[in-house]
Structures are given as structure tokens and as C-alpha cells.
Recover the amino acids of this structure.
């Protein structure tokens, strides 16, 4: 799930640098105002390149400096995403951050040189950053689930196998979507309202920085603010591990219990995880998302861990584990335990019981929202057929032409191509041989490395391509990439294929997760590719050069994402533990909500007996049906004049996500961040518009890198796990 939300996008589009220049744009033409358009000073068609954009010679813009800065920025985001994803189930994009960092790092560096830094090279930095910051999603979901189910050996032993899987999925998603660039960007963009709001905001940010009189000054201020927030968050994350009860978690109920104030009530509150965690990443997340989203997440935490969970325990439906015999803390329990004793249908913990309604609700809402877009999907299918026919017809008439598939020939349109356009276009030979090689390679490598048959591998790649088209359409229209939903579709189809072939449960689970991983990786890179092409289209950057940048960035991500995952699992083995029975402690710093979801689906669709407690299954059906109805009302009825009702409707997908997290701490911290942003925006709106994104991005990235540093310290044996003080912690346990 991406942290970029409509409110943040609108802020960046309206004033991407806090500069009151004379350029603004309506980012959506949706009559229902699904995304919420910005009141324009000048209406500019979002489906044509910018007019009067800053121009620099479009030569040699894929420079070593652009690739270096973009790769470093992407690697930073990749590390932050794996940390944040394993912690809370979210990831962020590097598109706008890459644009700002590229400008701030290279504008002054190249001043006065023979090769000045312009908007097109800035676009290349952003493209490399987006590509190299991608493919982290699978390492916070499917890959850890494979280890938890015992389907792979260990991250260190499997490193090159996982790199091969990542490379095949990433490059297949990249190369197979390249020929559809003009289709999504030019042919059907207007008809399907494929605005790609994040890409639009990124393009406007780049244009503003290079055109505004004080663009460099404001960009430098924004970058400086981001760096300050980054350093503060990183420092807090690293130093707090030695005194977590003072600098990281404020166990207020522990303090009250130690003072003798309602000790039984305070111990119960601590058992359910009601404490305040000063996580900069979640504070930053709260600043980025809409206030209603933060309220939904917090509301889900209260519902799961303040109402339903305690009710389950009171009724004897679920139970926890005693974790302390210290005087005064004999009733201290862990209700988030997931060991084999508490992770079964007969004897569930509250966390295991709540996992199923969370997963069911998330999937239902995702599918209902996609189904409500049936008109757009139908129009997409019709237009795809028409353009495909217009492409095939000249071939049968003997008029083969070079370049793209799914594009109109120059002879039919009457348009004349310029030499610059011809040089910048992507010829068929640049991608078609690569697709063939990847398919053949996947058919050979997958059976050797993962015991997947060639036929199963081809099915997974086919699903990757088909579902990528859905993901691109959804992202272009709503700025929400449904990676979770399409991956679950792939899981269901692949499990059905294995069972039809008479495979074992182990085979079904392996194909389920590995095949869906290919879908996830391919769709992620395909969406990023089209989004970057959208930025380049608006700025006039030659797509061929962007394509080269994507190839380079994908190579970086292929090596960086698995390496960071290995680092985290080396420092925190609980991430891939088959059960909590194998953990050295009853808790894990990384609950992995997305991992739990993927693992749950893999188990549920492969085993002959249901692993779901009967009461949880009944509640899951009712909960998912209610959430689906609310999603239907939002998409179908709450439109036009009734669209204001959406502001009072909870985001059920976010609310359900709180059910998959083991404690309410994340929801509390995110709510605090949202309140801080709301107060800041109300008191100093201009400062918030100018610096809010930089502060939030710095907090998120800073904690991620701080967490990575903690991994290294843990491996070296000098982390808080060995030397921490338990001051302020419940029952002296942190």
C-alpha cells in the first residue's frame, strides 16, 4: 500500500514547492470528483505535454551523476520500505522524493558547467529512483511467508535464487509493458481518465523547480528540512533501542500501575498493547494521509484491540499467554501470541482470531471497488480491441512497420514524426527479444531453483501481464495500486491450478506464493514504468532514454531489495520464524501484517480442513459483507451532490488493516501525526504546504535507515537487545 494519498497529491499539485507561480492544473476530469480536483487558475489539458516547459538540449541526459543520485535515493527508499512494510504493511514511492533530491543535489553542482542540469535530466534521476526503489513489496509479504511455511531454506542460502526470482519478475514486468506506453499514455488516457495523479504531481514539481525564479531557493529549503527530519528520526531510532521505555515507547499505564493507581486495569491495558510509540515513520505517515484515513486506522485499532479482543477473552472464545510472574504483574498477558498452541482453529489467540476478518474485509473491499469500475474496465477492453485490430490490419496488408505494438502508423494518422521523436522512440528490437529470453529463462530457472514446472511458471507470468493491466488502469484513474488484491487473485488461480493437477499441499503453497510473487513484482514494475513514462510525456523527455533509466534502476532494485531483506532477517530471525515457538522472545519488532495476510490465504486455499475458527469465519463473512456494502455505496451512490458523504464514511480497507497488526500502537501514533498535521495546516497553512511533505518524508525515511543501522548493530552484538535498559517497561520487559 502506498503512502501517497489524494490529499498529499493535491498539496504537491497545487503548490509543489510553495511557489506561487502562474502554473496550476486540474488533475482530474472525473465528474464525480473521485480524487478531488484543485481549483485551477488556468485549466490545462492533462493529456497533452506541458506548454512553455523549460527547455535544455535533450542529449546525454542519462548521465553517471543522474544514475548515481537516483540509485542512492532509490536504495534509501528501498531500505525504508522494507523496514516500514515489515512493521506496518505500507510502502512509499520514490517519485517526488527523487525529483526533489535530484534537483537539490545536482542543480548547484552543475551550475556554470558546459552541461547544466535541466528538467529532463531531473526526470531521469526521478525515473532511476522510482525503479531502484521498487520491488520491496514482495519482501514484506510473499517472501517472508515462504520462509514461515518452510518452503525455502534461509535468506542467506537462497540469496541468488531470490535475486533470480526478483530479476525475472521485475524485468518481465518492465519489458512486457513497454510496448503499451503509447496505448496508456496517449490512446486511451483521456477516454479512461488515466491522469496518474502522482506522476502529474511529480512532473509539475520538476517543472516548477526549473522554471520558478526562486525554485532553487525553495527546493533547497525543502531539501534541508527533509534532511533535518531524516537525521532526527534516524538518531531517535538508533539511540532509543538502549532505553526503549523512555525514548521510544511511553507505557503510561505502567507508570500509573507503579504508582498504585488502578493496577489491575493498567496491567490489562498493557496486556492489550495500549501504549504510545514515538515512531517517526508513523508520525510521518499520519502527516501524509488524509485525516479520515488516520481516523479509520485508529478506529480499527480501538475496535480490534479495545472492544472485540477483550470480548473474545471474556467469553472464552480466544485466550492469551501469561508472560510475567513478577509481583504486581501476575495478570500480564500476551494476546498477540502466534505460536502453534495459539494459532489454530481450536485454541486461537485474539490476534489469530482477528487476522481472518481483517484479511476477508481487505479483499472484499478491493474486489468491490474494482467491480464498481466495470464501465471503465469495459471501455478499456473495447479500446484495447480496437487499437489491436488497427495494429494487426496493416500487418496482414503487408505494411510492417517498426516501433511499437498497439500504436497507429504514421501513414494512417497523417502525422509526421520529427527526427527527435524517431531518435527518442522505443523500437521493437529494444524489448521484444528480451521478453522472449526472459520467458525461456523463467521456464528453465524456475523448475531448477524452485521446483515449479515450466507450465506453472508460464501461467504465473501470463497472470502477471494480465493483472498488470488492471493495476495500471486502477493507478492511472485513482492513484491507488491494488497490488494486494491482484496478488490474491493470482494466489487463488494458481492454487486452483495445482489442486486440479493433483499436487500436494506443499506444492500448492509453494506455487501459490512464488507465482503470486511474480505477479506482484511484475505489476509493481509495470505500474512504475507507465507512471514514469507519464512524467516524461508531460515534460517532453524522450521515452527511449527513460527506458534506459528504468533498466538501470531495476538492476539496482534487483540487488538492493534482497540484500536489505537478508540483513533484516539476519538481525531479526523472528521475521521468518515458522512459528513463535522458534523465537527467543515472545514478541517481534516486525509483526509483518502483509506477511500474515499472504500466509493466511496460502494456507486457507491449500488445506483440506479449514484453519479458521468457526466463530471467526462467521464474523469474517458478516464483517466483509458490511464493508463491501459500504464500498459499494461509496462508489455508486455517494457521488455528485452526495459525494460529501464520503468524508463521513470510514475507509474499511484501512480499518481492516488494523485487525492484522498485533497491537494498537501503530494506529495511535499515526493518529497523533495526523492531528499534528491538521493543527500545523490550520495555524500555518503556507508553511505546511511548503514543508509538510519534506518533514513527513524525512521522518519515514529516517526511521527506515535507522532501523537498517540497528540491524547492523544487532549482527555485531552491540544493539539494544544485548544492552538495553528496561526502565519504564511493563514488568521490566521491553
Amino acid at each position: 500500500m502506498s503512502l501517497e494519498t489524494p490529499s498529499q497529491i493535491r498539496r504537491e499539485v497545487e503548490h509543489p514547492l510553495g511557489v506561487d507561480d502562474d502554473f496550476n492544473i486540474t488533475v482530474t476530469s472525473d465528474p464525480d470528483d473521485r480524487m478531488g480536483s484543485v481549483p485551477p487558475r488556468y485549466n490545462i489539458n492533462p493529456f497533452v505535454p506541458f506548454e512553455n516547459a523549460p527547455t535544455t538540449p535533450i542529449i546525454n541526459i542519462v548521465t553517471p551523476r543522474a544514475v548515481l543520485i537516483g540509485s542512492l535515493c532509490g536504495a534509501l527508499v528501498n531500505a525504508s520500505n522494507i523496514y516500514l512494510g515489515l512493521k506496518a504493511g505500507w510502502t512509499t514511492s520514490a517519485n517526488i522524493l527523487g525529483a526533489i533530491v535530484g534537483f537539490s543535489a545536482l542543480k548547484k553542482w552543475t551550475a556554470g558547467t558546459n552541461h547544466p542540469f535541466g528538467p529532463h535530466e531531473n526526470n531521469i534521476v526521478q525515473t532511476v529512483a522510482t525503479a531502484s526503489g521498487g520491488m520491496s513489496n514482495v519482501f514484506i509479504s510473499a517472501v517472508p511467508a515462504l520462509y514461515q511455511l518452510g518452503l525455502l531454506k534461509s535468506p542467506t542460502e537462497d540469496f541468488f535464487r531470490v535475486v533470480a526470482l526478483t530479476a525475472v519478475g521485475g524485468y518481465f514486468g518492465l519489458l512486457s509493458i513497454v510496448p503499451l506506453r503509447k496505448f496508456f499514455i496517449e490512446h486511451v488516457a483521456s477516454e479512461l481518465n488515466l491522469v496518474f495523479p502522482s506522476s502529474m504531481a511529480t512532473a509539475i514539481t520538476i517543472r516548477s523547480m526549473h522554471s520558478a525564479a526562486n525554485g532553487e531557493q525553495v527546493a533547497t529549503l525543502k531539501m534541508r528540512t527533509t534532511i533535518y527530519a531524516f537525521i532526527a528520526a534516524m538518531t531517535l531510532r538508533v539511540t532509543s533501542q538502549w532505553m526503549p521505555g523512555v525514548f521510544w515507547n511511553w507505557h503510561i499505564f505502567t507508570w500509573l500501575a507503579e504508582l498504585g493507581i488502578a493496577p489491575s486495569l493498567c496491567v490489562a491495558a498493557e496486556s492489550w498493547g495500549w501504549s504510545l510509540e514515538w515512531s517517526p515513520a508513523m508520525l510521518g505517515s499520519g502527516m501524509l494521509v488524509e485525516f479520515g484515513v488516520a481516523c479509520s486506522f485508529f478506529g480499527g485499532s480501538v475496535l480490534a484491540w479495545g472492544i472485540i479482543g477483550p470480548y473474545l477473552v471474556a467469553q472464552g472464545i480466544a485466550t492469551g499467554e501469561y508472560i510475567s510472574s513478577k509481583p504486581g504483574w501476575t495478570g500480564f498477558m500476551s494476546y498477540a501470541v502466534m505460536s502453534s498452541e495459539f494459532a489454530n482453529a481450536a485454541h486461537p489467540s485474539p490476534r489469530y482470531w482477528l487476522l481472518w476478518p481483517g484479511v476477508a474485509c481487505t479483499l472484499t473491499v478491493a474486489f468491490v471497488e474494482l467491480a464498481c469500475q466495470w464501465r471503465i474496465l469495459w471501455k478499456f477492453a473495447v479500446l484495447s480491441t480496437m487499437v489491436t485490430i488497427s495494429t494487426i490490419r496493416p500487418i496482414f496488408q503487408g505494411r510492417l512497420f517498426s516501433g511499437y505494438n498497439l500504436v497507429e502508423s504514421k501513414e494512417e494518422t497523417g502525422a509526421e514524426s520529427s527526427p527527435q521523436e524517431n531518435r527518442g522512440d522505443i523500437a521493437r528490437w529494444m524489448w521484444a527479444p528480451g521478453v522472449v529470453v526472459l520467458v525461456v529463462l523463467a521456464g528453465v530457472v524456475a523448475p531448477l531453483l524452485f521446483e515449479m514446472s515450466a507450465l506453472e511458471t508460464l501461467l504465473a507470468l501470463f497472470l502477471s501481464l494480465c493483472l498488470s493491466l488492471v493495476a495500471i488502469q486502477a493507478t492511472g484513474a485513482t492513484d491507488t495500486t491494488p497490488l494486494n488484491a491482484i496478488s490474491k487473485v493470482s494466489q487463488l488461480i494458481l492454487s486452483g491450478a495445482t489442486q486440479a493437477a493433483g499436487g500436494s499441499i506443499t506444492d500448492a503453497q509453494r506455487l501459490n506464493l512464488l507465482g503470486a510473487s511474480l505477479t506482484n513484482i511484475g505489476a509493481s514494475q509495470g505500474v512504475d514504468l507507465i507512471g514514469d513514462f507519464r512524467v516524461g510525456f508531460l515534460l517532453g523527455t524522450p521515452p527511449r532514454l527513460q527506458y534506459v533509466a528504468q533498466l538501470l534502476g531495476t538492476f539496482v532494485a534487483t540487488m538492493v531489495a534482497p540484500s536489505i531483506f537478508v540483513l533484516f532477517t539476519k538481525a531479526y530471525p523472528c521475521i521468518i520464524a515458522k512459528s513463535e515457538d522458534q523465537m527467543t522472545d515472545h514478541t517481534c519488532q516486525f509483526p509483518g501484517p502483509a506477511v500474515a495476510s499472504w500466509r493466511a490465504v496460502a494456507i486457507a486455499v491449500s488445506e483440506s480442513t479449514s484453519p479458521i475458527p468457526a466463530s471467526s469465519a462467521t464474523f469474517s463473512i458478516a464483517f466483509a459483507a458490511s464493508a463491501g456494502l459500504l464500498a459499494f455505496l461509496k462508489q455508486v451512490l455517494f457521488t455528485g451532490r452526495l459525494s460529501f458523504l464520503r468524508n463521513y464514511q470510514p475507509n474499511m480497507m484501512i480499518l481492516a488493516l488494523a485487525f492484522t497488526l498485533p497491537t494498537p500502537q501503530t494506529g495511535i501514533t499515526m493518529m497523533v501525526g495526523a492531528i499534528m498535521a491538521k493543527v500545523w495546516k490550520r495555524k500555518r497553512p503556507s508553511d505546511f504546504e511548503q514543508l509538510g511533505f519534506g518533514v513527513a518524508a524525512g521522518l519515514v525515511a529516517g526511521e527506515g535507515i535507522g532501523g537498517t543501522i540497528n540491524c547492523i548493530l544487532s549482527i555485531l552484538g552491540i544493539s539494544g537487545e544485548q544492552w538495553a535498559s528496561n526502565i519504564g517497561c511493563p514488568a521490566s520487559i521491553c
